[in-house]
Amino acid sequence: MFKRFCSSTAIAVLLCHAIPAAAADSGNPENAFNPAFSLILSGTYGSLRQDPAIPATGFAMNPNPGHEQGFNLGESEMGISANIDPQFRGVATLALDPAGGIGVENAFVQTTSLGDGLNLKFGRYFSGLGYLNEQHAHAWDFTDQPLVYAVLWENQLGEDGVQLKWLAPTETFLEFGGEIGKGRGFPGTERAKNGSGAGVVFVHAGDDIGIEHSWRAGASLHRTRRVAAESADVPDLGGNAVTNLFSGDSQTVGMDFVWKYAPNGNIRNRYLKVQAEYFRRRENGDLTYDTAGANVTDTYAVTQSGWYAQGVYQFMPLWRSGLRYDRLDPGKAAVGALNAGNVIADYAYNPSRITWMLDYSPSEFSRFRLQLAHDNSRRGMADNQLFVQYIMSLGAHGAHQY
Description:
Elements: H1 2-5, H2 10-15, E1 36-47, E2 70-73, E3 76-85, E4 88-96, E5 102-111, E6 118-126, H3 147-153, E7 158-167, E8 173-181, E9 198-209, E10 213-235, E11 241-261, E12 271-289, E13 296-316, E14 319-329, E15 334-335, E16 352-363, E17 366-376, E18 383-395
Antiparallel strand pairs: 1-2, 1-3, 1-18, 3-4, 4-5, 5-6, 6-7, 7-8, 8-9, 9-10, 10-11, 11-12, 12-13, 13-14, 13-15, 14-16, 16-17, 17-18
């Protein structure tokens, strides 16, 4: 099963919630040069009791992707891919902002003929760390990312650089990978400099257990440096909202695991997917407190972490339900003496959230989702959230990863 899930078979397509690629017309040589084109249309309705702009307690110096209230057109995603020649393949994914403008999510070239299990990717891509990071939003099992992805990676870590993967020639799935890049995605700082601004190494292993079970586990390490990273509206010990700057080293370790079960190996009727990830980040450097006022700089170090666990069960054809639990730890910071009376070192609170979803997919090209969440990520501001989402897929779209 694991070997089949890692391929682009129809089974992999259904299990990974992808859209099958259009069949090529081998009788017309001109079609060999036509790129595959896809368009993902999505939208949501959100009902929240609290202001989504307020960050999780203890993570005000981190990004806060938040949510949108009321009716909202989601980010449309346009994909183009094709073989360039016998040695290379090109992929571009463009994000169409509902407010106008186009962003580049992915734009990379991949080798197709290195051999010996090697694959080289260069350009702009989602990093291979963790399990969820490489998946595009339309493939998520929930409307939003887990809290740990939101606060540590601003939903997803994107990179401009080079990635090399090696698939070992073993019966058990064993993959090693490494990346060097600019460091443009949080927690890095995009800088004009020679050389690399960030690096990632990761390893994945997996296998089948009979015809009904398969699993994959992974570990990753990310290192980068933040330079004059600005954080606005950070609460201080006096109850004020100030702007701080941080410069220093950032190192994140992660672990991920996914297990899948399909009765008799048939995922068309029923299957269960259970997954979990944990990330732990250590940052060490200098913090400038209240740049518009006191403007005091001293040492600062903190270790923050978070994890989630979720399960998704397709209980009958076309219908799935899922449950997810998130938890964060803002850590206890070591603050230099000059700022000990200004910066909050210990929030003594662990943000958390529990989420339930139900979705219906009339075909592999469309999905409707209802999601309810009880969000305790902000101390004293419990939030009951409701989301209704649609995801519609047009054109060719290949299977996603395991």
